[in-house]
Sequence to fold (246 residues):
Amino acid sequence: MKTMKRISSQYDFKRLMNPRAKKGEAYVPTDVEHMANIITHGGCIVPSILAMLWMLYIAQTRLQFLIAVVYGWALVALFSVSCTFHTLAFSGRFHKLRHFFHVADRAVIYIFIASSYSPWLTLRDFGGIEDEMMWLIWIMAVCGIIYSYTFHEKYKVLEIVLYLIIGVCPAAVAFLMREPSGIYELFLGGITFVLGVVFFKSDGVIPFAHAIWHLFVLVGTMFHYYAINLYLIGQEVDEININKEA
Ligand SMILES: [Zn+2]
Fold:
């Protein structure tokens, strides 16, 4: 009886997901997984627009306003592109458009990583290497986008390595930040993204793995958004200018 129960629960568990993708192919989610993918990021679109508007509202200086535009736009793009791709994937139609949005879904992650570093590199003093780091991060992001477009779903391990290099390595400069407030939130957000990668790679192993990855992205983003609003935007004078005057 116990064995019967075990077999039936395993069976139900497996019905929630499909087998792992073959080499060079994308995983095909089950219908419930598709729905979870759409809802987890679709539900973030309106809040991300409001989050952007809030940043624009509290921005006090020209630089803060610029940051609000770049980071806010990246937030909205991340969730909108993701939701559009997953909706198209669920529809099973519009193959060309779906492919475009699948590439865009991967590419927007690079933009989002660069946009997450930008507010700190713009408004904080890193001992004079802010501009160089900004160039480096955005050039890496452009390379990532070109990679996504050229080798879409071909070298999946390399894709993860690239995300981790671009996402994690520049974080080393955080230790150069003269004013360290916000560093804990930055690291908490970063760790959340990295842990989420485990689920990003677990399609067909853990049911709803991709939707769980979406939730990790959401939580990591909330840490970073909170930190930007608390420590960078809303002050009458930008920190980087205070330090320069001192
Ligand atoms: Zn997704």
About this structure: The chain has a mean pLDDT of 86.
